[in-house]
Amino acid sequence: MENTALDSESLKQKILQSNLPKEIEERLLNLLLFPKSGPEFEKLKSYIDFVTSLPFGKYSQDILDIQRAKEILDKNHFGLQSVKDRILEYLSVLILHKKRNDAEALHAPILLFVGLVGTGKTTLAYSIAESLGRPIIRIPFGGLGDPASLRGQARTQDSEPGQIMKAIRKAKVSNPVILLDEIDRVAQEQRVNIMGVLVELLDPAQNQAFVDYFLDFPYDLSQVLFIATANNTGNIATAVMDRLEPIQMPSYSDEEKLFIGKNYLLPKALDEAGLSRDSLQIDEKLWSQIIRPLGFDAGIRSLQRSIQTICRKVARKMVDGGIGPFKITNENLGEYLSS
């Protein structure tokens, strides 16, 4: 009992030192008025630890520089000019509103990147976050089958917050970029309920008082910049689509893939494998086979995997005592591409 009293006092000091909104502080202090022990106390401690770690009133300072945004998009993405232009227009409107301190700044439709796997949807979201200088947290929706995983569960012994509030805590600011990735791939049996949570998240009239069932009090998400991706829009509810602005991702041509493979993916894969730039040489004639190992692919995901596989094989040979540079030829390409 004495240890519980000491722990309760420690929690009280933690609450008082956390600079919480007054109503939240009082709510937590009131919970300590009723002594608990054992599992009940551990549950209360977990709750207070989570609430006091949330970034109430903390916001990152946006970088409002459209030229910088353009440079980042060009650095991270080859081609996609129409998509980049649309993003720069979106950011321009955001910047003008922010400079006027306009509360409508984030009330524009949320961007939804639509396209096949590997066409750059997710990486574009990361580039937008980098442009603004905001942290980004990705929430994958593929196979999501329980709306409680988004908005939390009422406090019981094994309950926990939802992914939205976990993302806010991880970002350490209340205005991160939250990437809702592949929102069309939720489990069909819970689609209606999950889409209902999405409407609440994306609607500025509702997300300023978003209630996670674990927290059981509203949290202001109105300054969060949501970005969504989908392979197609057929499985997305009309009410959600009304709050989104779809941007169709084009397929990459073989010429674009060649440039991306040689100038973006290969240098990155070499670095990831711990290899120097001159440790690997690929016969120019082989790139068409590396680009299309299994036929047409709209994106660059399979190309990226192929290049990563080649680099890992080279790393293994080097560790086994091989001396580079290692040359990829028509005769040995199959050896380097085998999984």
Describe the structure.
This protein is α/β, with parallel strands linked by helices. It has three domains: 2-52, no CATH class; 66-248, P-loop containing nucleotide triphosphate hydrolases (Rossmann fold); 254-337, Helicase, Ruva Protein, domain 3 (Orthogonal Bundle). Helices cover 47% and strands 11% of the residues. It is built from 14 helices and nine strands. The protein has helices at 2-16, 22-31, 38-52, 66-76, 81-99, 121-132, 148-151, 163-171, 191-202, 238-241, 254-272, 287-291, 301-319, 333-337, and strands spanning 110-114, 136-140, 177-181, 210-211, 218-219, 225-230, 244-248, 280-282, 326-328. The strands form three sheets. It has a five-stranded parallel sheet, sandwiched between helices. The chain has a two-stranded antiparallel sheet with strand order 4-5. Strands 8-9 form a two-stranded parallel sheet. Helix 1 runs parallel beside helix 3 and helix 4 packs antiparallel against helix 6. The protein is globular and about 75 Å long.
